[in-house]
Amino acid sequence: MSGPIRQTPGASATLLLVALVLAVPVLLIPLADDEARAEWEKRSLVELPSISDFGSPKAGFAQLGEYLNDHVFGVLAVNRAYRRAQFELFGDAPIPNVVRGDDGLVFLTSHGANYPRATLNRFCSPNSFRIKGIARSLANLSEELRRYGVQLHVAIPPSKIALYADRLPPTVPVRHRHRCQSIAQKRGFAPDLLSSMAEGYSVIYPFEEQFRLRDTPHFYPPENFHADSRSTHEFARSFFRVAGIAGDISGLEPSLETVRADLKMMGFSRDIKAWRYRYRQQVKITRSPPSWVLSQFPTIKVTATYDTERPLSRRRAVLLSDSFGAFVAPHLAIGFEQILRLNIKSLGKPEAEQFLTVALKKTAATDVILLLHDAGLDTGSLQRFLEYSGLP
Amino acid sequence: MIFSTTAFLYFFLPLFLAAYVLLPWKNLTALSFSLLFFAWGEGVYLILLLAVVWMNFLIGAAVHKAENDKLRRILVCAGVSLNLAVLAYFKYWGFLVNDVLAMSLPAESLPILPLGISFFIFQSISYLVDVYRREATPAQSVYDLALYIAMFPQLIAGPIVRYGDVACALRQRAVSFFPVVRGLQLFAMGLAFKVLIANQVAVVADAAFAAPADQLAPSTAWLGITAYTLQIFFDFAGYSLMAIGLGRVMGFRFPRNFNHPYVSRSITEFWRRWHMSLSSWFRDYLYIPLGGNRGGAVSTYRNLFVVFLLCGLWHGAAWSFVAWGLFHGSLLVLERAGLNRLLTKIPEVFAHLYLLTAVMIGWVLFRADTLSQAWSYLQAMFRTTTSLAAVGPWEIINHQQAWVLALAVVFCFPVLERTRWRQWDETSVSTMPTSALVVDVTVITLLFILCSVFVLSGTYNPFIYFRF
User: B10, A7: Cβ pair inside 8 Å?
Assistant: First the structure.
């Protein structure tokens, strides 16, 4: 079926050059840093399909397409550049579950792109029935802990959505903004309900103090989702007051430092300004799990231990938290000899049933701190933990 | 497989280009890659495509050989009917049993719509009819016909190429430097239309149509449909340009498919500029055989209605597409009945406004999932009051999309006509000074790089026209 089809050398050379240039991302697949990409995106990359995968040609080709998407050279760098350009050049949020205001404030509105306003919904439309249920479970847990001589504290750092609800930009639906502002003006619905129902446990929710300070420079770094700056420091002070830990941690002047932003989910890292407090140097942080966690709870990964040289008290604590815990714990640690921190989201049913009992014995804890930000109270992870964490 | 994916741009296309240049069997290479291209997305439906090719090859040969006019007519009618039967089964069976007959058959019992079936069936019909009319000689071999019907650049989203337009090139063509450069230029521009514009404004349109229509502020509803109006043009025109560009690279000339449709001043003019290969197909193979405008006003109006009813159905098997087709048919009848005379007398700006409003109302019918959603959306567009809690424009668009939208509006006008890009004939490239060629190559390269940034960073949006 060949015929008189002519081809000039100029055309051939041009097409071969174009083919070569276009093929570069695929030709360089062996040099692609798959490990870094998998780590950055927190998922496993698709494997190259085998011949048997083409038993269904459509499925085989689909997998080959996904493999190419995952492994072509340079994706990570290009993605970072693109997201950064969206953020810096256009002033837009680079992912759907982040909101960026015109004044530079960044809000995390959900942990998943499929429900990009889930956190907003939880904070701004709290479910009173569920919150009451949580309060009852907390009272039960507190009673059981008291039998061990352990005090329960429910520590609730005000989230950015609560403190800066009036600065949510017009990209957030107006009905959400109105509800969030209304809830924020009432200093948060869920924490209030928990405080009013607290039986035997303390609730630390320093909304007013934080709101008063919110406009001081770098109080809550505007580019950051979490607060590892003055807001966390002030939160620790509020906590110590309520928890009866004497001593002041504000004696030494903090320094303003440049740090890396905390979440990779936006697609790139940023340098931000934040206050750093010198007392944190007394805290030794061990990020690998203690040996008893490794042996008895091998599936638990997100733990850290904070040992303090000259603590404000001789108390020891188990800190169960959401992602805020990693930022607040170094400040809280100064009040305790030791804090063992665990991300509550990493607890499945089997771990939740036993972890607290074992942890109390192993750490000789005097306090249990449940630390969740105010938009994260009404979540499945806390309910799941409270449901399964029965002490014997 | 779609053109703006990693798999196509960085794997399939370079592999094809290298094979096409290095192997001596150009047609065999083009056909093999075309079949691979179809199999990549549609799997075993490749058998259906090959069966359609084989069937049309046999019928075309029979029509050509038959000396009796009656027999030729019977054969061509049978061939067209078989093609339409294939299309009807795969595309309209579900609509017929579920929507028309309200039988509620489960989705798994209905046939899956193979991508591009509307395009390759229409090309097959044009082949048979052209052979019947003796406007084209039948394919010399089944491979020629297979390459014509299955050629990957235009296989799944057009333009609809007539067999007569490429019959000679199938056997004899040249792959030379300047057409290749022009082809790459058109491909780059089409890719930019799709990736940099259509995909971006699509997010805005999707957000508007995803929100409950009764909660949309009128400004948001208009923004949403404006975004869709731009999306569908840049999506489809971009794909057509990429197809035409790849055709040039392979040594073929595919017809132009869009000519700035939104600058039209009437629906009649719009259809001379929008999806030109489809409208000319309907004109030549349906409207004129029905009698065209030769039988008086009533007959002409009836023919227009029939053509646009079927045009709507061709775009999709749903009542909303039927409504869209009838809406356009009605406007064409009105224009023919006297509105056109009025439009030529009023200031141009009002004629443009009429056209844009009519087209956008039509796109609401086209984009909505159901007729009731379309009706609610239209109500939102023309609502005079709005509640405080209504979805505002900034909830569905960000800064980047706003810039892209503004840029898209500019490119709806023939701004490129003022540059070298307008030249569709490669002779203009061959007479170009070297410095200008360097500039063009630089622009192509930059567009490729920019599109690659968007493609590689995960922007993904299937082409709208694939479902047709």
Answer: no
Nearest chain B residue to A15 by CA: give it. Answer: B17
Q: Which two tokens stand for residue B108?
A: 């798994």
- Spell out which residues of chain B touch residue A81, defining contact as CB-CB under 8 Å: 453
Looking at chain A, the whole-number percentage of residues with pLDDT higher than 90 is 29
Q: Which helix (H) or strand (E) holds B175?
A: strand B173-175
Contact residues, chain B, for A56 at CB < 8 Å = 43
Instruction: Tell me, yes or no, if B315 is annotated catalytic.
Output: yes
CB contact under 8 A, A19 and B141: no
Task: Please state the three-class secondary structure of A219-251 as a single string.
Answer: CCCCCCCCCCCHHHHHHHHHHHHHHCCCCCCCC
Q: Which residues contact B385 (CB under 8 A, 6 or more apart)?
A: none
Question: Could you tell me the two tokens for B88?
Answer: 């009807």
> Is 0.90 exceeded by the ipTM?
no
| Angle between helices B177-192 and A9-27 in degrees, nearest 10 | 40
Q: Best-predicted range by mean pLDDT among B93-97, B242-246, B317-321?
A: B242-246
- Dihedral sign for Cα atoms in the order B450, B455, B461, B462: positive
Residue from B64, B260, B275, B315 carrying the catalytic annotation:
B315
Read off φ and ψ for residue A219, nearest 5 degrees.
Answer: -60, -50
Burial of A248 (0-12, 13-18, 19+ CB in 10 A): exposed
Q: What is the pLDDT of residues A255-278, one digit of tens each?
A: 998 887 656 677 777 788 889 998
pLDDT higher at A275 or A301: A275
Q: How far apart are CA A285 and CA A308, in angstroms?
A: 9
Q: Report yes or no: A150 and A368 within 8 Å, Cβ to Cβ.
A: yes
Which amino acid, A352? A
Q: From the CB of residue A103, how many other CB atoms can be counted at a distance below 10 Å? A: 10
Give per-residue pLDDT as tens, A304-359: 999 998 899 999 999 999 888 888 999 999 999 999 999 888 777 777 778 888 88
Contact predicate B209/B367, CB 8 Å = yes
Name every residue whose Cβ is closer than 8 Å to that of residue B294 and which is 6 or more positions away in sequence. none
Name the 3-class secondary structure at A28: coil
CB contact under 8 A, A72 and B181: no
Q: What is the DSSP pairing of strand A201-204 with strand A151-155?
A: parallel
Between CA A60 and CA B464 the distance in angstroms is 24
Give the type of residue at B140. Answer: Q
The confidence score (pLDDT) of residue A113 equals 67
Give the position of tokens 């009649």: B268
Cβ separation B181–A14 shorter than 8 A: yes
Chain A residues closer than 8 Å to B7 by CB: 64-65, 68-69
The helix/strand/coil state of A172 is: coil
Give me the residue from A11, A82, A93 closest to B175, CB to CB: A11
How many beta-carbon pairs below 8 A join chains A and B? 169
Residue of A nearest to B38 (CA): A58
* B115 Cβ contact list (under 8 Å, min separation 6): B41, B42, B156, B466, B467
pLDDT at position A390: 62
> Per-residue pLDDT tens for B134-177?
988 899 899 999 999 999 998 877 788 888 888 888 888 989 88
- Exposure string of B314-325, with b = 16+ CB inside 10 Å and e = fewer, is bbbbbbbbbbbb
Burial of A142 (0-12, 13-18, 19+ CB in 10 A): buried
CB A128 within 8 A of CB A374: no
Strands (E) across chain A are located at: 5-7, 98-100, 106-108, 151-155, 201-204, 255-260, 271-276, 283-286, 303-308, 316-321, 338-343, 367-371
At residue A74, the pLDDT reads 86
Please tell me the distance in Å from B17's CA to the nearest CA on chain A.
6
